Amino acid sequence: MAMNSYYVSGTPFSWKVWLSLEQEEFRYNHKILRVDAGDLQASRLLAVNPRGKSPAIVHDGFKLYESPAIIEYLEDDFPGSGKPLWPRNKHKRAIGRRMANEAENYLYPQVRRMVDELLLRQDGSLDNNVIAEAKETIKLNLDMFSHNLNGNFLLGDQSSVADFTLYPLTVMILRLSARCPDYGLSSIIPASITN
Ligand SMILES: N[C@@H](CCC(=O)N[C@@H](CS)C(=O)NCC(=O)O)C(=O)O
Known about the structure:
The chain has seven helices and four strands; from the N terminus they run βαβαββααααα. By secondary structure, it is of the alpha+beta class. The N and C termini lie far apart (37 Å). Glutathione binds next to helix 1.
């Protein structure tokens, strides 16, 4: 079965799907898109996702976009190949889904604000209030995740979509921290998350 997986390097939703494909040991062709080359507006992507976003997949001619839908499709269609994306235990699974939603709904918007402010703003007028507010909310959220850590991964010894959602966001914060060391961002990531 052939799958094309469209991916923008280093971006959180694409990365989550990539890690899920790897965990399931699914065979796929990685179609790397470059934002600066205009690939998100290219007809080959718009034919798969008219919103011009990654991730998106085409599996035996079936087109799908929106990362939660793609991940559910991977779970539905390929049980048993590779490792499962969620634990079998229904309570653990529910908690994992809750954490993935928390990461996407509460943490991601703040990381995005930080990226917009620190990396994308072209006019040089940084808003320090926005940065301080985003930093505080990111810290609160990461502390909550760190208290939930239970073993090597959020749900114990096996990685799940909860980790695949949180990990790329953590790496984005580390990258921001390396690019803009004056803001002390690395200090707000609990050691239990980076270890
Ligand atoms: N809700 C979508 C979000 C997708 C998304 O925002 N993708 C980013 C890259 S990870 C993107 O393509 N951004 C380009 C843009 O917004 O133009 C999902 O879960 O797949």
